[in-house]
């Protein structure tokens, strides 16, 4: 159902099974898939593609141009996957040509009120961004990560799989997978044990992650030496390979 007060531009493509609420505006170039629920007073614009079964609440702004002074009207994109919940006043920008050109959102994510996802960000699947969490440009958020309320992340930072960022944190360096970070500037405080248990990680795997954490953060050796030791002592684990691989690919350095 499309409410009679909604404004749908001729160039928009919307599946018949999607509901559009009162006073919502869908502009040219937008593509919206099946069974979406878009509430009142939402604006969807730009080269934006929305998948299936998403719920977008009132006053959200989806696909607006980047908040980047270098942006000069280039045709960049926003791609949103399936089964996401986007709450009130959330804002999602398209990419820039100085980045990958596309902002990408995966599946089964929860974006609470006032969340901001800036240009060229990549958000995986099954993540939670709580109220007022703010992502600057070019950020990567891996699957199952959780960002607490009023949390801000510096541009180009990476947040690893199943990492937990406490509310009010200011994150300026990469947060490795499976760890808990908090503070201004955010520091690492341990392993996200509860989150890993909820995902079904075995006690053995969690034990390996704890051992890797201690080697990186408490052995008082360089990161390079610590990584070599982890590979030697904890080899054969895909979980540990993700952990070490993330750290090795870090360009901003990991939070300490």
Task: Describe this entry's structure for a reader.
With 256 residues, the chain is of the alpha/beta class. It has 2 domains: 7-141, UDP N-Acetylglucosamine Acyltransferase, domain 1, CATH 2.160.10.10; 202-248, no CATH class. The protein has helices at 193-199, 203-218, 223-233, 238-248; strands spanning 7-8, 13-14, 19-20, 25-26, 31-32, 37-38, 43-44, 47-50, 55-56, 61-64, 77-80, 85-86, 91-93, 102-105, 110-111, 116-117, 122-123, 128-129, 134-135, 140-141, 146-147, 152-153, 158-159, 164-165, 170-171, 179-182, 187-191. The protein has a 10-stranded mixed β-sheet with strand order 3-6-9-12-15-18-21-24-26-27. It has a 9-stranded parallel β-sheet with strand order 1-4-7-10-13-16-19-22-25, with no helix packed on it. An 8-stranded parallel β-sheet has the order 2-5-8-11-14-17-20-23, with no helix packed on it. It is elongated. The chain starts with 6 loop residues before the first strand and ends in an 8-residue tail after the last helix. The mean pLDDT is 97.
Q: What top-tier CATH class of the largest domain fits best?
A: Mainly Beta
Shape: elongated
Largest sheet geometry: 10 strands, mixed
Distance between the ends: 51 Å
CATH topology of the largest domain: UDP N-Acetylglucosamine Acyltransferase, domain 1
Total E-strand runs: 27
Which class of secondary structure composition applies to the elements? alpha/beta
Largest sheet, order of strands side by side? 3-6-9-12-15-18-21-24-26-27
């Amino acid at each position: 159902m499309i409410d009679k007060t909604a404004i749908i531009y001729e160039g928009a493509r919307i599946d018949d099974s999607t509901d559009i609420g009162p006073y919502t505006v869908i502009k040219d170039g937008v593509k919206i898939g099946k069974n979406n629920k878009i509430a009142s007073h939402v604006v969807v614009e730009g080269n934006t593609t929305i998948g299936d079964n998403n719920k977008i609440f009132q006053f959200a702004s989806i696909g607006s141009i980047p908040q980047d002074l270098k942006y000069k009207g280039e045709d960049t994109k926003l791609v949103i996957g399936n089964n996401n919940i986007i709450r009130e006043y959330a804002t999602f920008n398209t990419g820039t040509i100085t980045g990958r050109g596309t902002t990408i959102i995966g599946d089964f994510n929860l974006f609470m009120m006032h969340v901001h996802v800036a240009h060229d960000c990549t958000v995986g699947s099954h993540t939670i961004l709580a109220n007022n969490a703010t992502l600057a440009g070019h950020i990567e958020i891996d699957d199952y990560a959780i960002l607490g309320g009023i949390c801000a992340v510096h541009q180009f930072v990476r947040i690893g799989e199943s990492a937990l960022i406490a509310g009010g944190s200011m994150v300026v360096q990469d947060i490795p997978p499976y760890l808990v970070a908090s503070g201004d500037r955010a520091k690492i405080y341990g392993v996200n044990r509860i989150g890993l248990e909820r995902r079904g990680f075995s006690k053995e795997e969690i034990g390996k992650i704890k051992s890797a954490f201690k080697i990186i953060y408490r052995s008082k050796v360089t990161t390079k030496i610590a990584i070599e030791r982890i590979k030697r002592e904890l080899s054969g684990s895909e979980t540990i390979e993700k952990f070490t691989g993330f750290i090795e690919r870090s360009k901003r350095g990991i939070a300490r």
